[in-house]
Specification:
The chain is an alpha+beta fold. 25% of the residues lie in helices and 28% in strands.
């Protein structure tokens, strides 16, 4: 892996690996390559790996690291991570899943769809077509458990967040903020422009794998009718 990153301490039990701070496929590919490379080591002192747009946080146990190194050898967590990254093959990025997410764009579930269309001088149907034509990369999870930040949307769909966020946004709401699209896993306050809703449950705390999608996944939105949405909602 190219040495176009820097490693910095993040408190006394974590470090952060940072690449050029931009949202893009190549940078995120390197993030996920590092994620899978470090994850594959199965080192007991690496407690968690948290990928984001252009960074990867490594949470570790200093005591276990000390034991792994058979006492102090002068090697820090940064040294060990650097050695791993420099020896990580370009093929270590790992396979990505393609997830098809049904979305109903009916006005009753899409309070900002018509307003967005009017402001952009296009029809709601064109917004739906633009939103469903592209395949999106899940760059990170954040804000809420299981909330996927995905991008980038078509240039015509780029829209700033609402000036006055809503107090309640229903679970499953699909929104746009800037050049990103995302899905609210739980009911929550929020300021994204809501253009539809999915019947899927994106987060289940009782599940062994609680998040429906994760960083590196590819997501394709599939438009469904209001009747199909209601049927799928009752079936889940």
């Amino acid at each position: 892996m190219h040495s176009n990153y820097r490693i910095s301490p993040l408190g006394d039990r974590a470090i952060i690996i940072e690449w050029e701070q931009q949202i893009g496929g190549e940078i995120h590919r390197q993030v996920m390559q590092a994620f899978h490379g470090l994850h594959s080591l199965r080192k007991p002192y690496i407690l968690d790996l948290i990928p984001a747009y252009a960074s990867l946080t490594v949470i570790y146990d200093a005591v276990l690291l000390y034991r792994e190194q058979h006492g102090y050898t002068g090697k820090t967590i940064s040294d060990l991570v650097t050695a791993t990254l420099e020896n990580t093959s370009a093929t270590t990025a790992g396979p990505s899943r393609l997830l098809e997410v049904p979305v109903c764009y009916h006005p009753s579930l899409a309070p900002d769809l018509t307003v967005m269309a009017e402001r952009k001088s296009i029809s709601p149907e064109q917004i739906i077509e633009l939103h469903t034509t592209q395949t999106y990369t899940v760059y990170m999870l954040g804000f809420l458990p299981g909330f996927p930040y995905m991008g980038k949307v078509h240039g015509q769909l780029v829209t700033p967040r609402l000036k006055h966020p809503r107090v309640r946004v229903p679970a499953g709401s699909v929104g746009i903020a800037g050049a990103q699209t995302g899905i609210y896993p739980q009911e929550s306050p929020g300021g994204w422009n809501i253009i539809g809703r999915t019947p899927l449950q994106l987060f289940d705390a009782a599940s062994e794998d609680p998040c429906y999608c994760g960083p590196g996944d590819q997501v394709k939105f599939i438009p469904v009718s209001l009747a199909d949405f209601r049927e799928m909602t009752h079936a889940i």
